[in-house]
Amino acid sequence: MNILKILNNNVAVTHDKMGQEIIVMGKGIAYQKKVGDSLDQQSIDKIYSLSNKDAFVKFQELLSEIPIDYFEVADQIINYAKLTLGKKLNESIYISLSDHIFSTISRYKEGISLRNALLWDIKRFYADEFQIGLKALQFIKESFDIQFPEDEAGFLALHIVNAETPQETQDIYRVTKIIQEISDIVRYFFQMEFDEQSVAFFRFVTHLKFFAQRLISGNLHESESDTDLLDVIKEKHPNSYQCVGKIETYIKNNYQYNLTNEEKLYLTVHIQRVVHKTNS
């Protein structure tokens, strides 16, 4: 392996056996070396091979700007998340998570801390990812001797959520906010607290996630379902349908969107299920 580019003393760009560019990381791996020099493969601790070319370039830029320690703890968190969730994560998380940890710790050293306004909802709607966020706080404590509050676990959890979907982190915040808003309308309308361990609640939140994702992306339903079926559901579950009316007004006033009959139908059904399960 010959050096193609030196990012810092601990990181370099080279080729793998297939001729693909890769990033290699190791303590002092590029110290006192220059482009074209060979690398000591025994000194390589980590290899990154990102298929997305744009992400690969951004990752190189970030590696040249921040210390290796932040990437190491981010990698530890990402591997734990993959193992826990049993799924692949978008490659962009290596960039976003490393940068986030670096920025958060930099703010901490300046005496600046941020409150997470969505913490309660992140705990409810992204429970698995939040548990990973809590574990991530342990990794950060072990590496930097800094103990962050649960607010930071929530921020870290959203990076995991973002890596599970093609959405931007900003969109994840907006999706969570919409779920929160609709859930609050239902809770206040029925004067109840959800049974958040129930399958009905899980289905309800899943439905809201997909609706919120469509709402912010503009990819909303155009077709109308059978009006007769909606009339049947409306008559069968009048309270849940009235609640949907409140949701419809809120969405129209705040997001300039009119719910279709199909959306009102499914919302009524999901609300009826979650309310019935909670009350029983």
Explain what the structure shows.
The protein has 280 residues and is an alpha+beta fold. 62% of the residues lie in helices and 6% in strands. It has helices at 53-63, 68-85, 93-109, 119-125, 127-144, 150-164, 169-190, 199-217, 227-236, 238-255, 261-279; strands spanning 5-8, 11-15, 21-25, 46-48. The protein has a four-stranded antiparallel beta sheet, with helices on one face. Strand 2 (11-15) and strand 3 form a beta hairpin. The longest helix has 22 residues, at 169-190. It is elongated.
Keywords:
RNA binding, PTS-regulatory domain, PRD, PRD, single chain, PRD_sf, elongated, 3 domains, 11 helices, Transcription Regulation, Sacy, Chain A, 280 residues, CAT_RNA-bd_dom
Count of folded domains: 3
Distinct helical segment count: 11
The portion of residues forming beta strands comes to 5-15%
Report how far the terminal alpha carbons are from each other: 65 Å
Largest sheet: 4 strands, antiparallel
Strand tally, please? 4
- Report Rg: 24 Å
CATH architectural grouping of the largest domain:
Orthogonal Bundle
CATH topology-level name of the largest domain: PTS-regulatory domain, PRD
Instruction: Name the overall outline.
Output: elongated
Strand numbers in spatial order across the main sheet: 1-2-3-4
Q: What is the CATH homologous superfamily assignment of the largest domain?
A: PRD domain
Query: Which range best describes the helical content: under 10%, 10-25%, 25-40%, 40-55%, 55-70% or over 70%?
Result: 55-70%
Estimated structural class: alpha+beta
Q: What does the average pLDDT come to?
A: 85
Which CATH first-tier class of the largest domain would you pick?
Answer: Mainly Alpha
Query: Order of helices and strands, N to C?
Result: EEEEHHHHHHHHHHH
As residue ranges, the low-confidence spans are none
GO biological process, one term: regulation of DNA-templated transcription
GO molecular function, one term: RNA binding
Organism: Paenibacillus amylolyticus
Protein name: PRD domain-containing protein
